[in-house]
């Protein structure tokens, strides 16, 4: 990753840029997300800003270029139920096509992992990835994530069933 890209936690002020990037990703690669463009396209900026509000159990990290354009994001959440609160969830990883192959995905993941390790009581991160997304699978494996299962027919997108790989990172 070049020195002109900055990774930081998003704030409610980033809602418009986050929503635009996310909607573009949902349209471009619908099989990469559990959510859909149709579900999120009418979400208000206030609702998006609330998702980005500071919280000890949730964060969204963004990669910004020197001009301040948002190039990629990844979300970090925590399970809410008492017996599951030792687990975090990574969600919504997306990098613009023109910014790929520059190390942004790795930098975003490292920021999320670092933040997760600082959360008291968090011992593990989980994620799901489309089984056909070999680039993402390789990235996650290189960061220490281990596959612990596969969900056949995890998503139905435009009449096509997609399998997901379930992965975890423990510390």
TrEMBL record:
<keyword id="KW-0808">Transferase</keyword>
<keyword id="KW-0012">Acyltransferase</keyword>
<feature type="domain" description="N-acetyltransferase">
    <location>
        <begin position="5"/>
        <end position="171"/>
    </location>
</feature>
<protein>
    <submittedName>
        <fullName>GNAT family N-acetyltransferase</fullName>
        <ecNumber>2.3.1.-</ecNumber>
    </submittedName>
</protein>
<dbReference type="InterPro" id="IPR016181">
    <property type="entry name" value="Acyl_CoA_acyltransferase"/>
</dbReference>
<dbReference type="GO" id="GO:0016746">
    <property type="term" value="F:acyltransferase activity"/>
</dbReference>
<dbReference type="Pfam" id="PF00583">
    <property type="entry name" value="Acetyltransf_1"/>
</dbReference>
<dbReference type="InterPro" id="IPR000182">
    <property type="entry name" value="GNAT_dom"/>
</dbReference>
<dbReference type="InterPro" id="IPR050832">
    <property type="entry name" value="Bact_Acetyltransf"/>
</dbReference>
